[in-house]
Amino acid sequence: MKKHNVYGIGNALVDIEIEVEPQFLDKANIDKGVMTLVDQDRQTELLEQIRGLQHSRSCGGSAANTIIAVSQFGGSSFYSCKVANDESGDFYYTDLVENGVKTNLGSERENGDTGKCMVFITPDADRTMNTFLGITSNFSNLELVESEITNSEYLYIEGYLVTSPTGKSAAIQAKKIAEESGVKTSITFSDPGMVTHFKEGLDEMIGEGVDMLFCNESEALGFTGKDNVAEAAKELKKIAKAFAITLGPKGAYLFDGEKEIDVITGQVKAVDTNGAGDLFAGAFLYSITHGHSFGEAGRLACAASSKLVTQFGARLQKNQATDLLKNLF
To answer: Which region holds residue 151: left if phi is over 0, alpha if psi is between -120 and 50, else beta?
Structure first.
């Protein structure tokens, strides 16, 4: 039996969630609905503009949210990432460990600035991200722990790593280690901007293919250049043995390697969609590493995401995850 269900790699970012009106985004010259990389000066400017507005923070980054979800549902997970020896880095490490995740991080870390992601939530439940990567932009092979990768059932790769040369290299190396050890590989496209501006890099990270791919409808269409999910799915079968395409309020479209599965989700009133895709992947990976079918995994993942979007924040509480499991399995 493997030590970990999922070993994840990705950017370590302190997520700062702020509720704003669309006019705020216009006034601050922020592109709505996408993730935009910014430098430290720009983020400092934005932090000044949100002073006094309601906000919260948590250890985050796309893959971190997924790996924490695996732990919350009762799985074993490990996360390799990079934070600095600063207050934000201390906060990140403590929050990660308190959520039951094993990590390469320790008390001795490099000097620098821990990355931060400002997540602007508008009344339409859309999330807009401005991200200063800080020290996580230097995530590299040095942060990989080979013995933990080989002792995991799945490797999970965050697509955002494609924006950093060292991050992309680490993703490729981690995938190589996993494949040579018989560990299944999975990747998420992370954001429509990644498939639009970094497709060549994603192709490098995917290599000859992955065992499991996670993406949303926009990412699937953007990556394949197709006009509908059915046609996109045909193309994705060339690079992934199995995949899950999230469809927002419509549910999810799954391929388990043999057949397509449609998962329909109940309608809810969304207030914050931040982290929904990350949670979907975490719930899904937990399920398929605990004896559940793709269909069952899809139902849990959709139920979890549907619950998450009705509240603020990128993660469920552990008791909410436990209740979902009791209700579905």
So the answer is: alpha
Answer whether 301's CB lies under 8 Å from 5's CB. no
Spatial distance between the Cα atoms of 153 and 135, rounded to a whole number of angstroms? 29
**What angle do the packed helices 318-328 and 62-72 form, to 10 degrees?**
60
Contact (Cβ atoms closer than 8 angstroms) between residue 113 and residue 86: yes
pLDDT score of 267: 86
Q: Please count the structural domains in the chain.
A: 1
Give burial (CB, 10 Å; 0-12/13-18/19+) of 230: exposed
Report how far residue 227's alpha carbon sits from residue 229's, in angstroms, rounded to the nearest whole number: 7
Residue 271 pLDDT level (bands cut at 50, 70, 90): confident
* Average of per-residue pLDDT across 265-288: 92
Give the C-alpha separation, 302 to 308, whole Å.
Answer: 10
Residue 312 has pLDDT above 90, yes or no: no
Could you give the CA distance from residue 44 to residue 22 in angstroms, rounded to a whole number?
20
Structural domain containing residue 32: 4-328
Inter-residue contact 317 to 277 (CB < 8 Å): no
User: Which domain CATH number covers 78?
Assistant: 3.40.1190.20
